[in-house]
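Sharing in case it's useful to others searching the archive later.

Someone asked me privately for the predicted structure of Lmo0937 family membrane protein, so I'm posting the question and my answer publicly. Question first, with the sequence:
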Amino acid sequence: MLWTIISILILFWLVGLVLDLVGGLIHLILVVALIVFIVKMITGRG
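And my answer, the predicted structure tokens:
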């Protein structure tokens, strides 16, 4: 589930970079998702 969300966010982020539309917002969301993923891996809940 988590990998699916991360994959979708990365896809949207790449599309945002290519189209240069909402790349900033998507990038911010991707960074937040990455931080959440790292925290879950550290705490052992991943």
